Amino acid sequence: MASIGFLSRTHCHLGEGPFFCERRDTLFWFDIVEKKRYAHDSATGTETILDLPEMASAMGVTADGRDIIFTETGLWLWDGADLNQVAAIEADNPLTRSNDARIHPSGAFWLGTMGKGAEPGAGAIYRWFGGSIDLIFPGITIPNAICFSPDGETAYFTDTPTGKLMRVATDPATGAPIGEPAVFFDHAGGAGGLDGAICDGDGNIWNARWGAAALDGYAPDGTRTMTIDLPVTQPSCPAFVGGNRLAVTSALENMDDAARAADPDAGATLLVTLDDDIEPRFEPALRL
């Protein structure tokens, strides 16, 4: 079904937001709690670290190659030396932070926030497009699994404690939701929690299942088609890194000494190579 290796054995407290930049042949990811962005250069195997002034969880790249980082106070442009704010998002609320995010084929950025203590309903999902921020789904506890069909007509997301993976129609030209979300897959009562996700080029969804050491595949009709066992208990999010390979971040958050001993690779970033050929799909350019 798949072979499992390691892209990075750096142990993140809360690894999240893997993003593969084709132009640089580099995977970026974040340790939210430790306020760091990691980068792994595929050509050289070199790993570098960017220390950040606040919690950050995701990023995008504009058509002209600029990095936009999603932090606990909003969107920031990283120019290689400094951070400059592009948009404030809950900047006046010290109790929340950024979490899951993904770029729609239109270039719109869907951005999820949550309480730093996962307080019920403290977060939301926003859409950044054309220089403005819209609140699209309020009252979210832990936003996750944000991803989009290749044609831009469907968005997926979850509020992890509900156990329900949702789908909603979207405008392909703007990434705006159309109508009300409906349940795509009901995992309520199942092992672990639905976490980060990505769509491949054929519209299949790949979802990391936090607490269950699993990466699940879903067909576009909502059928769970496979479950890949992982060597970490808390996988958090996948990203394609070329061909049939996915990087999967993980975390050691909330683990005591016994749990750490039982899960020695917790926090590492995995490299999952699928046995079957799939059509990889990388993040589109972010439209400011």
Question: Can you walk through the features of this model?
Answer:
The chain is mainly beta. The protein has a single domain (2-274), classed as TolB, C-terminal domain (Neuraminidase), CATH 2.120.10. 2% of the residues lie in helices and 55% in strands. It is built from one helix and 24 strands. The protein has a four-stranded antiparallel sheet, with no helix packed on it. The protein has a four-stranded antiparallel sheet with strand order 2-3-4-5, with no helix packed on it. A four-stranded antiparallel sheet has the order 6-7-8-9, with no helix packed on it. The longest helix has 6 residues, at 257-262. It is globular, with a radius of gyration of 17 Å. The N and C termini lie far apart (39 Å). The model has no long low-confidence stretch (mean pLDDT 97).
